[in-house]
Amino acid sequence: MDVREKLAILADAAKYDASCASSGSKATRPGSKLGSTEGMGICHSYTPDGRCVSLLKILLTNYCIYDCQYCVNRISSDTPRARFTVEEVVSLTLEFYRRNYIEGLFLSSGIIQNSNYTMEQLTLVAKTLRQEHQYGGYIHLKTIPNADPELIQEAGLWADRLSVNIELPTENDLHQLAPEKKKVEIVQSMSGIREKIDEFKADRKEGFNAPRFAPAGQSTQMIVGATPTSDQEILQTATELYTGQNLRRVYYSAYSPIPHADARLPAQSPPLVREHRLYQADWLMRFYGFSSEEIVTEADRNLALDIDPKLAWALANRHFFPVDVNRASREELLRVPGMGVRSVDRVLQIRRHRQLRSEDLKKLRVAWKRTRIFVQTADRNPGLLNLESLNLRQQLQPARKQLLLFDAATSATTGEV
Ligand code: SF4
């Protein structure tokens, strides 16, 4: 099998790894000669300073000794298999990089032989790129749970970002669908990475010239909709990981049906809008000061699909409003539907000099139709009359339309909800 054939198989197999905001689009338009969008594994991700980089996203191999039921690469699947050598991945990365197709590499793998052997191979790719070719581009390595800490430590020396997939939201879900995987072992691997990152930061603070260790931090991915687990449990797990393991990102990936799937798996993907709502809820937790218990309550354990989670919270907590934009704290302003982090920061700047009126908020491009109902401005705000209205939810519901993938991606990257 030549490298191009391997690339077709191993880039396609990597598309299930949601470590980036967009992935290979549909095939090139018929008849076109320029502007190929072939699914050859080039996708986009964000660096810690907010730059968007294009990555070559591939698996080292899609052979795997595990039998995770939700995965097309599981040992019992009859999918076509391929395996790159370390040299092939290195050369593909360098070739793509030189031609300006990519700015980095995202490398994952099925588990071959055992965790340590697989981790060694992944690390060797990054080490060869850095040491032999002085490659300075971005590298994201997916680490293998259970691999020896020394191997993870070495991986962090060469990679910018490391990640360990939590895979499914709860221990019980893993037990059902991925019996070889244990949540405790996955979290232990994350802890090992976190400790090394903390050590590196502490050494640098002390003025030591410590070698860089995964400077772009660590992330994880959770598949949603493969089991009936609620959004409440999903967001609780995400909170545990953000607070306990200091993760940069949790990626939520809607389960996508695979051929010859186990009867326990659903026949259809969950609606794309569910993944979108989870990303919005995740942003509320990370940037808007919400806790997962506020976003999903015991009474209703799933996020509403018809309205965004911030609006849902506001409607359930009307006593919190109206918020006076000229007096409220930053934390209070961040809870107003339709106001994002940027508009709140602008409000705080402007009001040092003068009182804000409704017109000022409109100019700040808040989602005025929503915002006006929840805020008090210096002029009279007729929207306040609506706050007690029983059918407020219906009034504020967006018109039904097909959600585009890129709507979700934009919201996931800007966090504006
Ligand atoms: S270990 Fe990874 S590649 Fe292997 S079956 Fe499980 S999810 Fe798929």
Descriptive report:
It is a single chain. This protein has 417 residues and is of the alpha/beta class. 40% of the residues lie in helices and 10% in strands. The chain has a seven-stranded mixed beta sheet. It has a two-stranded parallel ribbon with strand order 8-9. Strand 3, helix 3 and strand 4 (138-142) form a beta-alpha-beta unit. Helix 2 crosses helix 3 (115-133) and helix 7 (231-245) runs parallel beside helix 8. Bound molecules: iron/sulfur cluster.
Radius of gyration: 23 Å
The number of helical runs is 16
Amino-to-carboxy terminus distance: 47 Å
List all distinct small molecules, including ions and cofactors, that are bound in this structure.
iron/sulfur cluster
Strand order in the sheet with the most strands = 1-2-3-4-5-6-7
Helix fraction bin? 40-55%
Number of strands: 9
| Broad structural category | alpha/beta
- Strand fraction equals 5-15%
Task: Profile the largest sheet.
Answer: 7 strands, mixed
Overall pLDDT confidence: 86
The 3D shape can be described as globular
Helix and strand element order: HEEHEHEHEHHEHEHHHEHHHHEHH
Low-pLDDT runs: 21-28, 35-39, 406-417
Key attributes of the depicted protein:
disordered C terminus; two-stranded parallel ribbon; 417 residues; alpha/beta; globular; single chain; binds iron/sulfur cluster; 7-stranded mixed β-sheet
Write the layout of secondary structure elements.
Elements: H1 3-13, E1 42-46, E2 52-59, H2 86-98, E3 104-108, H3 115-133, E4 138-142, H4 149-158, E5 161-163, H5 171-177, H6 183-205, E6 218-224, H7 231-245, E7 249-254, H8 272-287, H9 292-295, H10 309-316, E8 323-324, H11 330-333, H12 341-350, H13 358-363, H14 368-374, E9 375-376, H15 392-396, H16 405-414
Parallel strand pairs: 2-3, 3-4, 4-5, 5-6, 6-7, 8-9
Antiparallel strand pairs: 1-2
Helix pairs in contact: 2-3, 3-4, 4-6, 7-8, 8-16
The structure holds iron/sulfur cluster.
